[in-house]
TrEMBL record:
CDD domains given in the database record: SUMT
Tetrapyrrole methylase domain span: 99-307
Family membership noted in the UniProt record: Belongs to the precorrin methyltransferase family.
InterPro entries in UniProt: 4pyrrol_Mease (IPR000878), 4pyrrol_Methylase_sf (IPR035996), 4pyrrole_Mease_sub1 (IPR014777), 4pyrrole_Mease_sub2 (IPR014776), CobA/CysG_C (IPR006366), Siro_Cobalamin_biosynth (IPR050161), Uropor_MeTrfase_CS (IPR003043)
Source species of the chain: Terrabacter ginsenosidimutans
Keyword S-adenosyl-L-methionine: yes
Protein name: uroporphyrinogen-III C-methyltransferase
Entry keyword set: Methyltransferase, Porphyrin biosynthesis, S-adenosyl-L-methionine, Transferase
Enzyme Commission numbers on file: 2.1.1.107
Amino acid sequence: MNRELRREAAVLIETDLTGLPVLVVGPPRLTAATVRRYERAGAVVSVAASPCDMTTEASEGARLGVLVGPAVTWAGARTALAGRCPVVTEPVPDAPRGRVVLVGAGPGGLELMTLAGIRALAEADVVLTDRLAEVGDIAALAPGAEVVDVGKRPGHHAVPQDEIERLMVDRALAGLTVVRLKGGDPYVFGRGGEEVAAAVGAGVPVTVVPGVSSAVGVPGSAGIPVTHRGVSHLFTVVSGHVPLEPHRAEALAGLGGTVVLLMGMHNLLPLTTALVRGGLSRDTPAAVVERGFTPDQRSIVGTLGTLPDLAARAGAASPSVIVVGEVVRQSAVWARRVGAEAVGRALDVVA
Ligand code: SAH
């Protein structure tokens, strides 16, 4: 480290930034990340795009000057601040310093996120989130970050996918660390692949932090293992967003494993009907697990033949995971159903 850098490092180490007026000078495209960092450390930051834009008030009031950008642009600001306050510099390499981190938030509260996801939030300048309820919690984990809810909210449309990708890439190109927070795992019906491609296409470094997918976690939370020794040694995760085409339903039925359907509640009857037509018995155990990991979580168990009616009567809705296969018998709620059957009561159980 040369003498100048050592001196600058000493200034920063010895300076308590809380409440300190800091003047950041540099092109907005390059200063955004620096501004957020100093604000997060408690400084009161003002910004000037160039030495000519420095107001007298800002330059006289500053207790620390931070010069960002190519070193050739620093001379004017150094002269203006000379003798007033210490100055530190942040050369910016040509390559963009921003990045995108896709984070899987898991299927429920933030407790189900990974430590890598929590760390990414702590380092974020911007969080683009799909999650509905916990924006406040996200803000607490991402202090200083701008939290933008791009998901569907009651009365609001979701921000269109190309707009989300544009926001994400633009902010990263401006030097910001952008966390794209998604429910479950980013790559399971989460459009994670498209967002990674958008970042790569724009030359922005991108990493993906996996998340617990509802496809496995939600059945598990209802006591349904998606595989079980001697019962099912495979599971297939299928989008129920559109009805199953007959050849797919036949293929699924032929596999002899567990079928997990996401986004399928509005198609529950066509989906179960297709699976029966595809070759599964109407008596195949099947369950709807609704609002997993919330205080309102419910399981509705029955068979392919009975589940649509049961779910409709219970008023079950999205978000729910539909599980079809013998593994449903492993759950305590199935045991209660069988117990009820044995004493001649209701054939199916909502719990
Ligand atoms: N990437 C997500 C899935 C997104 S698709 C993941 O890996 O989990 C959205 C679907 O996931 C919902 O329609 C529902 O089928 C399911 N889902 C997500 N969270 C859920 C939850 N807490 N309880 C029940 N189903 C859930």
